[in-house]
Specification:
alpha/beta, Aldehyde Dehydrogenase, Chain A, domain 2, about 20% strand, globular
């Protein structure tokens, strides 16, 4: 596991009971750099045997030193993990960009910094957690004793690999659990390093484990008899599979799933700010952020002006080598995903859409999966490009005349993750935002996060919430104890 330059290769092994191990059958697959199509290294494929070993190591660790470790010591270990992530920031950012195709500056600024911050946040938060207590007249005192859920499986996608893995691992450890991580097969590298970092920070062997592999590996974890909870981020359809696999053992489930998020621009908005942020919320990370606004609705009075200025700014985005400092949009994460996104561009054409920008693979690349940032107009509300999650640098823009008509379109979706509303009218900001069926609504901003707030989606965008007390509750069980007075 050595990574010195962007050409170097990394072998990704499982991390079980504090050691890096191969699969018992030695099976591997090749990890491909999406910007160059070069092989970055081999990745072990975990089967039921490796999942069994990892779960057994986690179960065993729950009865060891971890069980009675003083709160302060555990909190310090989390803090140390954050420090070690930052110590290795350059290396981790490079690995993340090699794996995902995203610009290096973005990996540094968002993925790695926020990964460290997840540990810092929960290191602090865990020391403040209280519990419920009720005095029942002079009869009894009731209090809820908190304990870890047990062995938790953490299954993650490829778009923000380390950031999202740590968003689950940090609260899981803060609440005293032992974990088995299953990173995305598409982006296995930073998670691999995380095993080593946890060990160096003082996490006892077996508390943090990781098994690489495809969907089957995640499925083995989801159906495992001795796993108590699954926290999953990924596609909605995969969530349904996990729910089925977990049903016989009634595991606790936390799901962060897909989205088709509306971005609403009223005529009274600060258009400059709205356009600048919309370029970011549409195309950052190649549009591969679950929170990206992919359905843009603009009040008719400013529709033409918005489109002109939005298209102009979008055309300025440099699509290119993730390691070039000028690059704003890198490569899509894999050939499979690239083909999926290009497929939607064909659908948009068939459906009668007009490309204001983009609409095709980016030119000038012999290798790699680059797509031009694409703005589509002229599509109706039943268009597949308006209804389905594309998860690439592709947005649709539609004008609206009334709030009633707008609300109907905004909520006419199975998804309910996030939305943005741009307006200078405070009454509208609160009134209209409250009617949107989404777990998160930003007003005059996007992606502004406070880790104490509830994060997650409604409808088919998720189950439960993450963040602060919400994460802590998911990773804890409560026993109500009644003391008779
Ligand atoms: P995916 O569902 O294909 O894969 C996610 C993970 O699940 C991978 O590790 C994969 O190996 C595993 N997996 C696949 N099949 C499985 C099965 N049957 N049982 C158990 N595990 C299985 O998702 P993806 O393509 O990696 O990620 C993109 C999706 O993630 C998008 O839909 C995006 O919106 C969503 N996402 C949501 C959030 C959020 O917070 N709501 C954040 C990021 C990404």
């Amino acid at each position: 596991m050595k990574t010195e330059t962007k050409q170097s290769v990394m072998e990704c092994l499982h991390f079980i009971n504090g050691e890096y191990v191969k699969s018992s059958n030695a099976k591997t697959f090749e990890n491909v750099n999406p910007a160059t199509e070069e092989v970055l290294g081999n990745v072990a494929i975990g089967g039921t045997e490796e999942v069994d070993q990892a779960v057994a190591a986690a179960r065993e660790a729950l009865n060891g030193e971890w069980k009675n470790m003083p709160l302060k010591k555990r909190s310090n270990i989390l803090r140390k993990i954050g420090d070690l992530i930052l110590d290795r920031k350059d290396e981790l950012a490079e690995l993340e960009s090699l794996d995902t195709g995203k610009p290096l500056w973005l990996s540094q600024k968002v993925d790695i910094d926020r990964a460290a911050n997840n540990f810092y946040f929960f290191a602090d938060y865990m020391t403040t957690v209280g519990t419920e207590a009720y005095e029942q007249d002079d009869i009894a005192i009731h209090y809820a004793k908190r304990r870890p859920v047990g062995v938790v499986g953490l299954i993650n996608p490829w778009n923000l690999p380390l950031f999202l893995m740590t968003w689950k691992l940090a609260p899981a450890l803060a609440a005293g659990n032992a974990a088995v991580m299953k990173p995305s097969e598409v982006t296995p590298m930073t998670a691999t390093v995380l095993g080593e970092i946890c060990k160096e920070a003082g996490v006892p062997d077996g508390v943090v484990n990781m098994v690489h592999g495809f969907g089957e590996t995640g499925a083995a974890l989801s159906s495992h008899e001795d796993v108590d909870a699954i926290a999953f981020t990924g596609e909605t359809i995969t969530g349904t599979e996990i729910m089925k696999a977990a049903a016989p053992t009634l595991k606790k489930l936390s799901f962060e799933l897909g989205g088709k998020n509306p971005n609403i621009i009223f005529a009274d908005a600060d258009l400059e700010d709205a356009i600048e942020t919309t370029v970011r919320s549409s195309f950052i990370n190649q549009g591969e952020v679950c929170l990206c606004g992919s359905r843009i609705y603009v009040e008719r009075q400013v529709y033409d002006e918005f489109l002109d200025r939005f298209a102009e700014k979008t055309k300025e985005l440099v699509v290119g080598d993730p390691f070039d400092a000028d690059t704003k949009v890198g490569a899509l994460v894999s050939e499979e995903h690239y083909q999926k996104v290009l497929g939607y561009l064909d659908i948009a054409k068939e459906e009668g859409g007009t490309f204001l920008t983009g609409g095709k693979a980016a030119e000038g690349f012999d290798k790699g999966f680059f797509v031009e940032p694409t703005i589509i107009t002229g599509l109706g509300k039943d268009s597949r490009c308006v209804r389905e999650e594309i998860f690439g640098p592709v947005v649709t823009v539609v004008p609206f005349d009334t709030e009633e008509e707008l609300l109907e379109q905004v909520n006419d979706t199975h998804y309910g993750l996030s939305a943005s509303v741009w307006t200078s009218d405070v009454k509208r900001a609160t009134g209209f935002s409250g009617k949107i069926e989404a777990g998160i609504v930003w007003v005059n901003t996007w992606f502004l996060r406070d880790l104490r707030t509830p994060f997650g989606g409604m409808k088919r965008s998720g189950l439960g919430r993450e963040g602060g007390a919400h994460s802590f509750d998911f990773y804890s069980e409560l026993t109500n104890i009644t003391l008779k007075m």
